[in-house]
Amino acid sequence: KAGVTQTPRYLIKTRGQQVTLSCSPISGHRSVSWYQQTPGQGLQFLFEYFSETQRNKGNFPGRFSGRQFSNSRSEMNVSTLELGDSALYLCASSLRQGNTEAFFGQGTRLTVV
Amino acid sequence: DAKTTQPPSMDCAEGRAANLPCNHSTISGNEYVYWYRQIHSQGPQYIIHGLKNNETNEMASLIITEDRKSSTLILPHATLRDTAVYYCIVRAPDSNYQLIWGAGTKLIIKP
């Protein structure tokens, strides 16, 4: 069974630009959660999608948004990038909404310059 | 804030058992204890979880005290590949509450 796939693995963007990250969950998993990981703040929850609907949201500004498609694939978008958005963005998939047995992808390393 | 307290770092000799403690004194009756680990530059990996009984799988054992206020993750025969940050998380399953990750324990396995 293929694991969680995140693309791209690495990304460099300029302040003010926007970026879209992609996550393909494990086949059969319907929940996708996104996390931001930085050295200073650790792992922080962004949002969770289940059946194409956002079910849970962390404490991030509206510049961070996401969506989920009918095949459970998910995208995360960050607009008007700031230097502080540089981080490892992790996607996790699980069978059910709120299921804590989550399987994580390798992450996308975003650098904003 | 994370509902768990873990030591920031620990060392263990290769081949020995690694015992990682976690305090969760405010745990509620329906909250499970979950353990994840994150090897450098990779996404976190689920290890094990439990409610009140001790649990064992192919990766580790989880020992939860009778009052459920603390637990210990045991890696029975640590290898160099077990060097990672280990996170202890408590949460009710299938709830709408997000996973709250603390700083974890940096476990270094030494040859």
Describe, in plain words, how this protein is organized in 3D.
The complex is a heterodimer of chains A (113) and B (111). Chain A has 113 residues and is mostly beta strands. Chain A contains no helices and 11 strands. Chain B is built from no helices and 9 strands. Chain B has a 5-stranded mixed beta sheet, with no helix packed on it. Chain B has a 4-stranded antiparallel beta sheet with strand order 2-7-6-5, with no helix packed on it. Chain B has strands at residues 9-13, 18-23, 32-38, 45-50, 55-56, 61-64, 70-75, 84-91, 105-110. In chain B, a hairpin with a 5-residue loop joins strand 6 (61-64) and strand 7 (70-75). Chain B has 111 residues and is mainly beta. The mean pLDDT of chain B is 91. Classes of the chains: A mainly beta (113), B mainly beta (111). The interface between A and B is medium-sized, with 25 and 23 residues.
